[in-house]
Amino acid sequence: MALSDFSEKLSNIVKVLPNKPGVYQYFDADGKIIYVGKAKDLKKRVSSYFNKDQTQSGKVQVLVKRIRDIRFIVTNSEGEALLLENNLIKEFQPRYNILLKDDKTYPWIILKKEPFPRIFYTRNKIKDGSEYFGPFASVKSMHTLLELVHQTYPLRNCSLNLAQKYIDEGKYKVCLQYHIGKCLGPCQGLQSKENYTGLVRAAREIIKGNISGVKAQLKEEMMAFAEKMEFEKAQYIKEKIERLENYQAKSVVVNPLISNVDVFSILSDEKSAFVNYLKVEAGAVIQAYTLELKKKLEESDEELLLLAVTELRSRFESTSTEVILPFQPETELPGITLTVPQRGDKKSLLELSERNAKYFRLEQEKQKDLVDPDRHGKRIIKQMQSDLRMPVAPDHIECFDNSNTQGSYPVASMVVFKNAKPDKKEYRHFNIKTVEGPNDFASMEEIITRRYSRLLDEQKPLPQLIIVDGGKGQLSSAVGALDRIGLRGKITIIGIAKRLEEIYFPEDSIPLYIDKKSETLRIIQQLRDEAHRFGITHHRKRREKGTIKTELTEIPGIGPQTATLLLSKFRSIKRIREANSDEIVNTIGQAKAALIEAYFAKQTKPNE
Predict the structure, then answer these.
(1) 30, 152, 232, 447: which could form a disulfide with 412 (CB 3.0–4.6 Å)?
(2) Sorting pLDDT into bands at 50, 70 and 90, what band is 417?
(3) DSSP state letters, 18-69
(4) 218: phi > 0 → left, psi -120 to 50 → alpha, else beta; which?
(5) 195 lies in some domain
(6) Number of folded domains in the chain?
(7) What is the predicted pLDDT for the residue at 394?
């Protein structure tokens, strides 16, 4: 079948699509699902893919070219479509969808259905009538919770079958756990089922996050023991309360009245998105997980967030009826209240979730840098190539800066970055030789000519990017120099103006304004500042040497070595002039001290 026939077939399908919410599926030539999407209006959404007037990304255009068939499922609402989309993506894993697979098996806390139920953790959830809590994204937090339960309540941890007939037959003996007070001996009938069930019920409340209710019950028990003058038992209960309060103090982050709430935030860049999920019970975060999503078709933050909300709530079996989000999506979720807080405790929870997403991304970056130490530099270089519209990546960058004081002692500096890092052994200073007076344009032209003429003569590698500290004037001078030595158009050259950090390109009067937070601008600024620092250091040294020459070495009989001795001792010309004869004699000797004194004495005489 010709491509034109396929186009006609798809066009006919699109024409009959209903204006209703639902899910659409794209199939390739082999009959395989390559994309699943949801829509508020199936006809409008699917039509947008084939609208030639609409600007689409290259990835979407590739997808559209592969479509050979379209199928759809109508739903009652966009929220239902979202749930169905999530299930279809996980089932078929289409090539152009974000994959929501998760190879991890998360642990659960299980309240085992058996006589004298045990509470422990498992990674295998089976339908045996037991009660499961979780799953827990953090194994550490799960173990902390289990430890709190077993420290607070003496529940058995053995796997004995405690059917009543075995207890009556005296089949078992108490173990060490009984003797150290960690178990009350139900295996020998030393603890009643009623008593044990009461402990399990309280432990269950702790696991569910209802610590405040358990504390209130324990306080009643403590007061009852105190009234009966049973102070040892009252103290035992008090220690339990303190243990619970200590745990609660570490876990409660907001108002305890905020309960059974899910919190989601998203942190997105060009290639990925990080969605953080917090489960809150009684003001405490009892679940925390961050999901990384790799973008396939330049999906919006709203699409990614809704996909993650659906997936994570399903994965962690959330029953919360309120979900806190950073923005209000257009799609409503069935049976769920969506909250976008502006202030208060819920806003604090959202900010906590956002911080978790940021920390997760930083941790991911650190892990990648450990595996590939040069990865960070490569990524910056690739970004610079894109931002500056360069034909090649700027692995080798050279930046130039002029430095002079009202035209005196003019110098220039060049710093070199390779792989986005300073290469200090390649730094160079230039003393301006052919320019008289303060002329930055002519100075820039001289040093560019000298630098690259020499590299050409010595057949050394040229940089991919030249940066000039200055605006259009300095850039034009540098471009003129490159033109004269035959390098114009062979090396990318830009100028950076200090006032607004504008980036200028040759023969383009309109500057480029790069995002202030971008790594490209940060590297350019770092190069500019380093060149300035390096140039100022050289200029200061040259000026100091110039001062010695004009002030002291002009005195007949006084050379550079004597001048250096004097300045090392007295630190300035003024102090030498004010010093007494003995100090100068002790530094340079009687004969030369006399020359110095005669020189300064002559300077102080009035003109005749």
Answers:
(1) 447
(2) very high
(3) -SS-EEEEEE-TTS-EEEEEEESSHHHHHHHHT-TTS---HHHHHHHHH--E
(4) alpha
(5) no
(6) 4
(7) 93
Same structural domain for residues 363 and 499? no
| Bridge pairing between strands 108-111 and 119-122 | antiparallel
529 within 8 A of 394, measured Cβ to Cβ: no
Distance CA 136, CA 146 (A): 12
Q: Is the pLDDT of residue 149 over 80?
A: yes
Q: Is the pLDDT of residue 365 over 60?
A: yes
Phi first, then psi, for residue 550 (nearest 5°) are -80, -30
| Per-residue model confidence as pLDDT tens digits over 61-112 | 888 888 888 888 888 888 888 888 888 887 788 888 887 665 566 788 899 9
pLDDT of residue 3: 43
**pTM, entire model:** 0.54
CA dist 229 and 129 (Å) reads: 43
**19-58 in b/e burial notation, b at 16+ Cβ within 10 A?**
ebbbbbbbbbeeeebbbbbbbeebbebbeebeeeeeebee
Q: Which of 301, 293, 299 minimizes the C-alpha distance to 102?
A: 293
Asked if pLDDT for residue 364 goes beyond 60, the answer is yes
Q: Could you give the dihedral angle defined by the CA atoms of residues 147, 149, 150 and 154, in that order, rounded to the nearest 10 degrees?
A: 170
Q: In this structure, are 564 and 503 located in the same domain?
A: no
CATH of the domain at 320: 3.30.420
Residue 437 to residues 10, 410, 412, 600: CA-CA distances in angstroms? 74, 8, 14, 30
* pLDDT at residue number 494: 92
Q: How far apart are CA 124 and CA 105, in angstroms?
A: 8
Q: What is the CATH number of the domain that holds 61?
A: 3.40.1440.10
